[in-house]
């Protein structure tokens, strides 16, 4: 029983160490993804500000839909970048990489 407890504790520690190992490719991809998301949010904010100042409800709705689409596209692209970064290290860290469906 004591050997089992030691083996289980060792396995737990090793799995924790493996999970913490983030590669340089992962960090770089995450940084690029963050930049893409920030740029998308900034553009969406601009469109929403234009929507607030739109003279008609139809124009306001169209600009708000465009802002939503810009933000969704940026999020999708950021997920792709993160996934590609996860795959760049041979799949060692793809367990926590978002899927791009």
How would you describe this structure to a colleague?
There is one protein chain. The chain has 101 residues and is an all-alpha fold. The protein has one domain (24-96). Helix content is 78%, strand content 0%. It has 3 helices and no strands. The chain has helices spanning 2-20, 24-52, 57-87. The longest helix has 31 residues, at 57-87. It is elongated.
Descriptive key words:
101 residues; mainly alpha; 78% helix
At a glance:
The chain is mainly α. It contains 3 helices and no strands.
SSE layout and pairings?
Elements: H1 2-20, H2 24-52, H3 57-87
Q: Describe the sheet with the most strands.
A: none
- Cα Rg: 21 Å
- Mean residue pLDDT: 80
Number of domains: 1
Separation, N- and C-terminal Cα atoms: 46 Å
Number of helices: 3
Order of helices and strands: HHH
Helix content: over 70%
Briefly note the structural class of the backbone: mainly alpha
Strand percentage:
under 5%
- Secondary structure tally: strands: 0
Protein name: Secreted protein
Biased composition (Basic and acidic residues): 24-46
Region (Disordered): 23-101
Keywords: Signal
